[in-house]
C-alpha cells in the first residue's frame, strides 16, 4: 500500500469506525420497531445508491440499456460489465433487506415503505456539491467514501440469537462480501488523480467532510444509539 493510499484510509478511519460503533450499540438493544425504522431508511439507500452521484437504480438501469450499443465502440466492455455487476449487487442488497422488513411487518413491502431521512438528504447535498464541480479528484473522493468502509455490514454479519438477528446477519454477510474491498478499489482510482500534496489535501478534506456527514446519517438512522458528545469524542479518540 502506498503512503497516499494509507493517508486516504487514515482520513476516513475514525468516521468509519464510528459508524461501526453506532451500529454495534444499536443492535445490542434494538427492538423490532427499531429494526423497522432503520430498514425503511436503509432500503431507500439501496434503491438510491450514492445519492448525489448516481441517480437511483431505475435511472441507472435505463442508462445502462441506452449505453449498450456503445460497448466496444465508445465504452470499454470491462467498464460496462463492472457497471452491470454494481447494479445487480445493489438490487440484491435491496432484496435481502426487504425480506427482513417483510418478516417484521408480516406483509409485502410497498414503495411507500422506504424513506429518505433528513441526514441522508444532507449527505446527498454534500456529495452533490462535490460532483457538480466536475472535478475528477473530488468525484474520486465521493466514490472512496461510498459504503463507509463496509463497517455497518461488518458489524451486522456477526449478529445472532433472535430470528431477526439471524436474518440480518445473513443479509449483512451478503452485502459485506460484495462491498468490503470497494474502498481499496476506489483508493486506486483516487490515487490516479493525486499529482501533488495539494491534491492529496483537497481529497482528504472532501473525504472527511463526506464521512462526517455519513456518521450523522447513521446516528439518525439508528435512533441516537450514541449521543452527539459521544460521537465527537469517539471520532477524536480514533484519529490516525
Features:
240 residues; mainly alpha; Heme Oxygenase, Chain A; globular
3D architecture notes:
The protein is 73% helix and 0% strand. With 240 residues, the chain is mainly α. Helix 1 packs antiparallel against helix 9 (182-191), helix 1 (3-29) packs antiparallel against helix 11 (228-237) and helix 2 runs antiparallel to helix 4. The longest helix has 29 residues, at 77-105. It starts with a helix and ends with a helix.
Cα gyration radius (Å): 18 Å
The N- and C-terminal alpha carbons lie at a distance of 16 Å
Strand content: under 5%
Say which CATH homologous superfamily is assigned.
Heme oxygenase-like
Could you name the CATH class?
Mainly Alpha
Q: Can you count the beta strands? A: 0
In short:
This protein has eleven helices and no strands. The chain is mainly α and 240 residues long.
Detail the topology: elements first, then pairings.
Blueprint: H1 3-29, H2 32-47, H3 57-67, H4 77-105, H5 118-131, H6 136-145, H7 151-156, H8 163-179, H9 182-191, H10 197-221, H11 228-237
